Amino acid sequence: MLTGDAAYCAGRLGTQSTGWGICEIDRPATKSVSGTASRAKQGQDSTTSETVAVGALDSCLRDGMFSLYERHYAAADRGRFEHDLAEKDSVVLVWSGAGDVIGFSTILVGRQEVDEVEINYLFSGDTVLDASRWGDPVLLRAWFRAAGAIKAGLGNRQLFWFPIVKGDRTYRILPNFFRTYFPAADTEIAPELKRIRDRIAGARYGRLFDPSTGLIDFGESQGHLREQWADAEHRAPRNRHAAFFLEANPLYHRGIELACIAEFDLSNLKRYGASCFAEGMVHGR
Predict the structure, then answer these.
(1) Using one digit for the tens of pLDDT, what is the confidence trace for 187-209?
(2) Which of 32, 179, 212, 232 has the most Cβ atoms closer than 10 angstroms to its Cβ?
């Protein structure tokens, strides 16, 4: 049972959650994780998450993960999926109460030199949550706790979130949970954040990244939301952040990504995420 700040976090995140799965870093698992593993049932509608090392995923579970991803993303490719997975450190798995994998997200903690200072950043890879479970807060809670644990391990060094975004639901995590981030609607350019973003994106994507727009264009789509969920146009008239995303990345529906940046720090997190982030810093997960 959650109490205090943790309970507040769970309640508030439930109203802000999106269809984007978030990752959690933990100590590497020492055993293989099977797609048919038995799990305690907490009711058909409950969800739980666990984090394992990428190397601990067996072929059966990898098959299930790709099947879930392919149902939600067009232009999905198994070889590219496995390549993305191999680059990452860990994966958070989200289980239904019936013991089925209904979501996952991969994570990498990277480093980049910016103006002769080493910057640490959290980068998320392939991510999906079954559309029927969008709104379940377990993903964001686990992710903010994980980010807090990573930050605690860095001591006084900064930690940034570097997402590349191909949907307004993911983009809206930034205004919902962070005070300062880039790019943002109705605010002036933040030169320091832009410089950090540009250096990370440039190092990772080279000429595919355009610093003048913040967009990463792979040419051929590396995966994009299927038509029934690529619906930023429907939210833009009533949500200024969705409208900003659509203006910044009008061709998102063909897999173009918007590079973003925000710092993980208690002073930069709104209360919704700060409680879980603080919990991760204290408990290490």
Answers:
(1) 778 899 999 999 999 999 999 99
(2) 232
Distance of CA 56 to the CA centre of its chain: 21
The letter for the amino acid at 284 is G
Q: If we measure between CA atoms, which residue out of 272, 249, 21, 275 comes closest to residue 143?
A: 21
**Terminal Cα-to-Cα distance of the chain (whole angstroms):** 17
Identify the band that residue 229 occupies on the pLDDT scale cut at 50, 70 and 90: low
Strand 101-114 with 90-96, pairing: antiparallel
Q: How would you classify the pairing of strands 261-263 and 159-161?
A: antiparallel
135: left (phi over 0), alpha (psi -120 to 50) or beta: left
For 250, phi and psi rounded to 5 degrees?
Answer: -65, -20
Q: How far, in Å, CA of 10 to CA of 15, rounded?
A: 9
Do 221 and 255 form a contact (C-beta atoms < 8 A)?
A: yes
